[in-house]
Amino acid sequence: MMKKKVLFVDDEPNIIQGLKRMLYNMRESWDMFFAGGGEEALKILSENDIDVIVTDMRMPGMDGAQLLDIISKRCPQVVRIVLSGYSDQEMVMKTVKSAHQFLAKPCDAAALKHGIERACLLKNLLNNESLIKVVTGIKTLPSLPEYYGMIVAELQSPSPSLPRVGDIIGRDVAMTAKVLQFVNSAFFGLPNRISSPRQAVTLLGINTLQALILYVQVFSTIDESGGRTSRAAMDDLWKHSVTVGSLAGEIALSESAGKKVEDDAYAAGMLHDIGKLLLMAVPGYNEDMRRCIREKQCSSQEAEYELLGTSHAEAGAYLLGLWGINDSIVEAVAFHHNPSGMSGEKFTALTAVHSADSLLMEKGCDDEYRKIDMKYISRLRLAHRLDTWLECCLRISLRGN
Question: In percent, how much of the chain has pLDDT > 90?
Answer without folding.
Answer: 37
